[in-house]
Amino acid sequence: MGTLNRLLLVGLLACVPLASHAEDPVSADPDVTIRQDGDRTIQEYRVNGFLYAIKVTPKNGKPYFLVRADGSDGNFIRSDDPDMLIPSWEIFSW
Fold first, then answer.
1. The CATH number of the domain where 58 resides is what?
2. Is 13 left (phi over 0), alpha (psi -120 to 50) or beta?
3. Which of 45, 69, 85, 91 could bridge across to 53 with cysteines, CB 3.0–4.6 Å?
């Protein structure tokens, strides 16, 4: 019986370093950032820092979503009108 307890204790102690190096689990809940832009409310949805959707709620009108078109940066389309591409040109930069 004493040998079994020792083996169990050694097994538990061997697993402790492995548990301390485990990474944080990926959260299924998105991070939502809400901001005002003029007369619109913009909600940005992110998972692990990756922006995947934007909800735009105008003061007068129906809210709409912008989602990634093909997974690339800055290429969003409206979810209710998938043929309309949203331009993301940089005109000036300092």
1. 2.20.130.30
2. alpha
3. 45
Distance of CA 4 to the CA centre of its chain: 47
Per the structure block, which two tokens stand in for 39? 């007369």
pLDDT given at position 68: 81
Q: If DSSP codes are grouped into helix, strand and coil, which group holds residue 11?
A: helix
Distance CA 37, CA 82 (A): 24
Which pLDDT score, from 0 to 100, does residue 58 have? Answer: 93
> What are 46's two structure tokens?
């992110």
Q: pLDDT of 37-87, one tens digit each? A: 899 999 999 988 888 889 999 999 899 998 887 766 667 777 777 666 556
